[in-house]
Amino acid sequence: MTQYDFPIWLRATHLINFFLIGLLLRSGWQIIATHPRFYWRSDCGPGTEWIRFTKRVVPPEEGAYTAHDDELEPPSWLTLPGKLNPALGRHWHGLVTMLWVLNGLVYVSLLFVTGEWRRIVPTSWSIFPEAWESLKIYVGFGVPSIEHFTPYDALQKLTYFSIVFIVAPLMMVTGPVMSPAVSSRFPWLPKLFGGRQAARSIHFLGMVAMSVFILGHVALVFITHREYNVTHMVFGEYDPARVAQATTIIISTIALAIIVWIAISYVSIRNRRASQKFLFRAMEPFRKLTINKFKPRNRTAQPYTEKDISPYHWTNGRYPKPDESPEWHELAAHDFRDYVLEIGPANDPAKIVRVPFEQIKSLPQQEQIVAHACMQGWTGIAKWKGPKVMDVMALAGPPPADAKYLLVTSFGLAQSMSDGRPLEPFYSCIPIEDCHEDESIFAWSMNDKPLPWTFGAPLRIRVESYVGYKMVKYIRSLEWIADYSTIQDGMGGTREDSGYQVINARI
Ligand SMILES: Nc1nc2c(c(=O)[nH]1)N[C@H]1C(S)=C(S)[C@@H](COP(=O)(O)O)O[C@H]1N2
Ligand SMILES: [Mo]
């Protein structure tokens, strides 16, 4: 027993871990609620889920039911931040992950530096039969005697080892695999796991394993040799005189953590714009160190072929209603033959260049079979065809010297406005460097047919290293801008304005 003590760093990293895991679980559940279905295949077809947390049935007709219709509205006491706030949930998940990984690195480094690693890393194969023996004792509701705890018994040791060195790293890898930026830069990564949906499912199963472990771990602290455990946890040593005090401290700490977990949800949801800005800024250093460093990707990066094309493709955002855009309906009535794309400054109509649909189709065309990843969690593989973004923009001359973003505006309207004012057009700002990427195109064709209404007819943008919300459908006009802060709510796009997403849509 005396061979290992419970040094302060061990106890501190455990406490921090406990607090952060709570935030990770709660924000993770928020993300699950956004698309409460898990699949192994990347096309997410209705009925192909292996598990789902909703009774809603998806109609087989594409576009009849949107991913937004499918979202669940979890309460704030359960998830972070609760209600229909998937983007804030994701930002919280990202930020807390960074802190959790840092804390984990400190823990694992100190484990090795201090030589304490032997407490959880098995050094002999005899761990397996020993663990089996202790499992038999637990299953019979017994407790292995104290001399087996050095400081843990074989079963505990094996479990701790698996959680720290197998489940945690698996979570750290399967998380980023779901990001289009990562999977488009390292296409072998999603392949390794059998695709993005498989990675999402493994991430989910890892969460279940972690949760079962935490419940079991905390329960066993109180069930097996409680006096030893609680005093070790709080004071770092066994002290029979202070068992009650230690127990009180542990229970109050857990209660306090629960209160803070829930309080963060309520504070965040009351101040959504402030949370969005805070979380974006807090994550920016990590983004700068990682995904912002990725070079414009290679067009052949996504490893899909015709046979991967999804028989069913989810959709988000419906085509404009007749009263939203009579203009679009007029065009649709004539199969968009009269469609003219407007490129140029909205405040200077004389400078607007009008490009007929035929001209767009007569530019050099590019075809790409790619996976669309919606921020909500679903993916769909399709073949898109159209001219490169920069080729179309060149029809209006070179970008102005101060051009930083391409403002893409839709005929369709936003689904809601952050302050309830009348609906304004759906829009998005794409950083100019991303317009230069090989796979940035204006698509007018999907799976060898003109774009169906639902999927963005007559023209939509595809920027494959981004999640779906940047890819404006039903495009009406394009404009180079230097700054987006004066457009609508000033956050860089409809989803950023009223969904609290971030302008850097790579994750
Ligand atoms: N005009 C318009 N474009 C839009 C949206 C929208 O609501 N309106 N939704 C976006 C989101 S969130 C996603 S995931 C994709 C979905 O594209 P799909 O319907 O073709 O699958 O469209 C994007 N473009
Ligand atoms: Mo989306």
Structure description:
It is a multi-pass membrane protein. Residues 336-482 form the Oxidoreductase molybdopterin-binding domain. One of its GO terms (cellular component) is plasma membrane. It is a single chain. This protein is of the alpha+beta class and 507 residues long. It has two domains: 8-35 and 71-291, Transmembrane di-heme cytochromes, Chain C (Fumarate Reductase Cytochrome B subunit, Up-down Bundle); 297-498, Sulfite Oxidase, Chain A, domain 2 (Alpha-Beta Complex). The protein is 43% helix and 12% strand. The protein contains 15 helices and 13 strands. It has a five-stranded mixed sheet with strand order 4-3-13-7-8. Strands 5-6-10-11 form a four-stranded antiparallel sheet, with no helix packed on it. A hairpin with a 2-residue loop joins strand 10 and strand 11. Helix 1 runs antiparallel to helix 2 (86-113) and helix 2 crosses helix 10. The longest helix has 28 residues, at 86-113. The protein is elongated, with a radius of gyration of 26 Å. The model has no long low-confidence stretch (mean pLDDT 93).
The CATH topology assignment of the largest domain is Fumarate Reductase Cytochrome B subunit
Q: How confident overall, as mean pLDDT?
A: 93
Number of helices, counting only DSSP H or I runs of 4 residues or more: 15
Beta content comes to: 5-15%
What is the level 1 CATH name of the largest domain? Mainly Alpha
Cα gyration radius (Å): 26 Å
Low-confidence stretches: none
- Helix share, percent: 40-55%
What is the name of the CATH superfamily of the largest domain?
Transmembrane di-heme cytochromes, Chain C
> Bound small molecules, which ones?
ligand MTE, molybdenum atom
Shape: elongated
Protein name: Oxidoreductase
InterPro entries: Cyt_b561_bac/Ni-Hgenase, Di-haem_cyt_TM, Hydrogenase_cytochrome, OxRdtase_Mopterin-bd_dom, OxRdtase_Mopterin-bd_sf
Organism: Intrasporangium chromatireducens Q5-1
Main location: membrane
